[in-house]
Backbone:
């Protein structure tokens, strides 16, 4: 698989972009708190990252209308330019600029992530798509281990403005990497170019009428409505359950990254054995197991839970993307991926906010039990709906009325 020059360039670009992404989020959250002294200011920054997922279907239209490589290139270069606005931030009076940068970053992700997945589907054989997606998740897991140290460390040593410049450089390098990628763009008949609303509707109809796609998206959307609780509950688990200092959260986060890396290497083999949809099912089941393990107030068990949670993060992501890639015609992939990713990301954003509020009034063990119950139900339902090894049907062109 790595014999492909295009995939190597794309992988390098993903590594640089992911490193810049995660370091940016961490450093800018710290920067917002430093400027205002408010934890809420940092929380608002994370909200601005998530908000643009509402517009993911619109981004999908852009991805399908224009050459994918060009979209990826421009999205990275525009984000690099926006990051340089950080040089103008000198005090709390420019906090709005920081929020603008974070908001633009959120918008960049709804273009960059689906575009990357459409490019992968065009340069990698179908039989190796799960391997390629797993490899990208392995890279993401490795970055997850390094970025917190890099982001916080750079901010401490060189300050927020320098971090903005360094992050801008990573986006420029990611853009340059995509120049080495050779992509076969789907041919679109000019007569099929319609209104934005109709093109968005085509993506929505495809995702929610194709049985396997619909089932995966619905199961993951419901799963994400409780999965986001973990963002807040991890602190209660560490403090109230394990009686460890808050710094131990970093240990659990690192173990989770190891889980992502491990799952990424195994994703391709797993998909060939049981099918791409069942990979999603296994990922959701891992969330159930992780929630149950976190109920046990023991350090070793919590470390195991973090590792299993990492497996879940990887397999649900790889399974979702591969399911869409295999069951969608090339000219529709941008809209299908935008719709699917948006439908899954939005409930997760709601869940993070809901979990933060509920954790104040509800015991963390009750919320973990709720997570386990909901995710178990989703895994069982998806396993019942889609048999082991269910094959993807050959995607038809979007103009074909039988494409459902």
Residues:
């Amino acid at each position: 698989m790595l014999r492909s020059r295009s995939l190597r360039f794309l992988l390098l670009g993903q590594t640089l972009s992911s490193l810049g992404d995660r370091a940016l989020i961490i450093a800018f959250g710290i920067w917002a708190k430093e400027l205002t002294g408010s934890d809420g200011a940092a929380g608002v920054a994370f909200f601005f990252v998530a908000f643009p997922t509402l517009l993911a279907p619109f981004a999908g239209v852009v991805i399908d209308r224009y050459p994918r490589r060009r979209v990826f290139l421009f999205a990275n270069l525009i984000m690099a330019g926006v990051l340089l606005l950080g040089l103008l931030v000198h005090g709390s009076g420019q906090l709005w600029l920081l929020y603008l940068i974070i908001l633009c970053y959120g918008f960049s992700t709804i273009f960059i992530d689906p575009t990357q997945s459409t490019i992968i589907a065009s340069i990698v054989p179908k039989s190796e798509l799960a391997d390629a997606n797993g490899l990208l998740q392995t890279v993401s897991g490795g970055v997850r281990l390094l970025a917190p140290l890099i982001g916080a460390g750079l901010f401490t040593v060189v300050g927020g403005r320098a971090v903005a410049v360094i992050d801008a450089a990573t986006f420029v390098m990611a853009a340059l990497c995509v120049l080495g990628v050779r992509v076969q763009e789907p041919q679109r008949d000019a007569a099929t170019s319609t209104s934005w609303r109709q093109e968005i509707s085509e993506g929505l109809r495809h995702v929610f009428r194709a049985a396997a796609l619909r089932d995966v998206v619905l199961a993951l959307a419901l799963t994400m409505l409780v999965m986001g609780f973990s963002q807040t509950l991890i602190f209660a688990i560490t403090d109230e359950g394990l009686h460890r200092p808050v710094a131990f959260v970093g240990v659990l986060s690192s173990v989770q990254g190891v889980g992502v890396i491990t799952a990424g290497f195994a994703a391709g083999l797993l998909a060939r054995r049981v099918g791409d949809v069942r990979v999603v099912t296994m990922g959701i089941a891992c969330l159930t197991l992780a929630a149950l393990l976190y109920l046990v107030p023991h350090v070793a068990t919590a470390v195991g839970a973090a590792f299993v949670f990492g497996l879940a993060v990887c397999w649900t992501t790889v399974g979702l993307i591969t399911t869409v890639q295999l069951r969608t015609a090339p000219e529709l992939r941008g809209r299908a991926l935008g719709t699917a990713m948006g439908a899954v990301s939005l409930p997760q954003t709601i869940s993070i906010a809901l979990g933060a509020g509920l954790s104040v009034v509800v015991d963390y063990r009750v919320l973990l039990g709720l997570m386990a119950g909901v995710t178990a139900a989703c895994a069982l339902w998806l396993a019942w709906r889609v048999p082991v090894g269910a094959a993807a049907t050959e995607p038809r062109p979007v103009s074909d009325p039988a494409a459902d």
Observations:
- The two ends are 31 Å apart (CA to CA).
- The mean pLDDT is 85.
